[in-house]
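Fig. S4 source data, part A: sequence.
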Amino acid sequence: MLPRVVIHNAMTADGRLTGFMPDMGLYYELAGSFAEDATLSGADTALAGLEQFADDAAGFEEAGALEDRSSLPLMVITDSRGRVRAWRQFLGMPFWRAGVALVSRSTPADYLAYLEAEGVDTIVTGEERVDLRAALEELNARYGIENIRMDSGGTLNGAMLRSGLVDELSLLVSPCLIGGRDFVSLVTASDFPPLDLELVSARELRGGNVWLRYRVVR
């Protein structure tokens, strides 16, 4: 069975995901409403997030050591190239109960050995790239995952949407414009098919932020 998947992103009024500072307290307050069983990120987003919270790592580790993690979601990262080698830091944060790496059959053996040494489970699907549908089905079968919140960038967002694996988009729109030519947008995919969305709700929140929720029409 496939889990329900929600893409949850903060963006500017012109659709940028980077180059600005969203209201992170508000962003995670909204994220908490989805009652996720797992948080799904791509390798780029995971590494960027680790850099962002690097200064708070010591405090996270202390809090994480004291917390009962049994009710927390899994941290799931797609990483067929074996780029994320900071799992100890991730799992030291008090946000997840354990980690799962989604890898492919081409993932380097030394990276698989690293994951095993760090106590990170693996789901192996696909040849050169992760077979996302098969990986989600395995997350459900192995761990009982029913609700996934994506905290990722345009590449994984695009791949998941293109594969018909996303049920809802949750967008926190910040009242600012960035402009420019080179930027990270909500969806990055050269062969992306047009998708229709149905508006579920639109709410004005503090600071001029707007929360938009869309159902993906299939």
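Fig. S4 source data, part B ends here. The beta strands are 4-12, 38-42, 74-78, 98-103, 121-124, 147-150, 168-174, 197-204, 210-216.
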